[in-house]
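Methods: example folding runs. The two proteins below were folded one after another, and each record is reproduced exactly as written to the output file, sequence line first and structure-token line second.
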Amino acid sequence: MVLIEIVLVYIIYLFIVLAGTYYVTMFNSKNVFTKEEIKNVFPYIFLFVGRVNEIYPITVFFAVLIVSSFIGIVIPMIFKHWIANSSLLFIILFFALPVIKNQMEKSQVAEPEKYSDALANLLIKFTEVIILGFGAGLGTALLYNWRALSDIHSVFFLVNIVIISIFIGNIINILIKE
């Protein structure tokens, strides 16, 4: 039952972040809006899904997203320390992973013979997906820990979920514009 709750929270959280990203992008791009633009967020979501489908093989995308989301969910569920239940790990990943990607691109192997080379190539290609999945998983775990388990104080939760959502929105914009 807990797994179903977490999956539902994950899907709803990702939808809310996608919708929020749409509205922030729309409000930043122009001053006058039609009624249809304001109430119809689904074309933006389909644009996101279409861009992801163009950039990545869809099965590998979902595999990487699920694994990174699982890691993002498990860390706050296992460790009750405030660092594990904050946006700090996500912020570190958000800024460190692109730097690691740039360093790995310099020594990228075209035909990997070792698992480490294949893993490095996967990291290079799916950096944004890993960040998106980890952030969505961490946000989901924070939501669950805050409401269902009452492990997190409300103000601490609010600050961290807003930070994570803003950074996830940034990653979504990067994926759409890539």
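Second run, written to the same file directly after the first:
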Amino acid sequence: MLKDNINDYKNQILNIAIIILAIFIASKIYNNQAKEVLVLNEKKDVEARKNIVLEEIKKSENKIDAYKSFINDKQLSAVVNKLNEIAKQLPINILSIKPSGEQEFPLYIKYPFSMKIETNNYHMVGELLSLLESNPIIFHAEAVAMYPEELRMGKKIGKIIAEIKVDTFILKD
């Protein structure tokens, strides 16, 4: 009788064993795939962070290009006119503005100018320097020399002569 019962349930036991084996194999496959999904999600997150950094770099490059075009957008004759325009905002007399030879450096070209002005006090020289260095056209006052105007016919005139060396720059590509 026990033998008959086992024979009756033999197919069912075999089917249950196959189902348990299939569930075990499916579980292993699922766990491996879940691990792969986690690894892929981590890689995706890393790539997303890289993309954010690359976008920031691209924005920075665009800003640099905009600044370069802004800095380089100048004609040298316009620079002389701008120097003249800035100086005319103050009570000073421009005696001369002379461009010097360009000086080439690895990253930029420097265009120096010599200005000679006449004013009643040295504060105006400081105002001029402040206006030059705060101008959108990038000017750099490299050197300033001030001395009193020479005596004329034995009288002291009271004017100050200032010689200012001003540079502007153009960036190389």
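Comment on the second run: The mean pLDDT is 83.
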